[in-house]
Known about the structure:
Layout lengths: L23 H16 L5 H13 L3 H8 L7 E2 L2 E2 L5 E7 L2 E4 L4 E2 L2 E7 L2 E5 L4 E2 L3 E9 L2 E5 L4 E11 L2 E4 L11 E10 L2 E5 L5 H8 L8
Parallel strand pairs: 3-6, 4-7, 5-8, 6-9, 7-10, 9-13, 10-14, 11-13, 12-14
Antiparallel strand pairs: 1-2
Helix pairs in contact: 1-2, 1-3
Amino acid sequence: MPAETPPTGNHTGRSAQPAMRASHADRDRVAELLRIAAGDGRLTADELDERLEAALSARTVDELADLTVDLPPVSQSGGAVTDVKDLLRIDQKWATVKRTGRWVVPRRIELSVEWCDVTLDFTEAVITQDTLRIDLDMRGKTLTLITGPGITVDVDALALEFANVRNRQTQDAGTPTTLRVELAGHKSFGRVVVRPPRRPAGRWIRRGTPALPSAD
């Protein structure tokens, strides 16, 4: 009588090894890799938001690996990222420079411009760290920094020559700082303006227009 072979799908022994659970450090490491990729221009702001949300809720190492499978490896030592490309250089003359909408804020900006209006709008920007240093070499025109809640600007290290600073930023005492912008370098002629976003015209009209009497 031939020996019986147990059904293929009904093993009585140990089941396949389960996927390894992800730790907080694993999630943080992948989140940092995603932020670096976004800073390099490999991910859009929407892709970064989507993958960060998935990384922070991932339960296994395999789920985390899927989030970086299409990204180049980043050299690491002891779990800390050491190869960080986080510098944005802007070199321009006689033009308009703008960073608005959902742009990814790097750790440092080198801004070398002549007779250019420059606007850096942080109200919808993707902020991946708590400090941004702007090394400025700017002649003429206006540098405008549009801030939001939790964003502060420090101009103490900025040297001015025939230029002035108009700092209109306001912060509530209980609002935590999410981004500190440090301005350093040299600004000659023109001005630096730090301000919150402008209120839409419709809001001013609604607030300033009295209610009409009813037609009863």
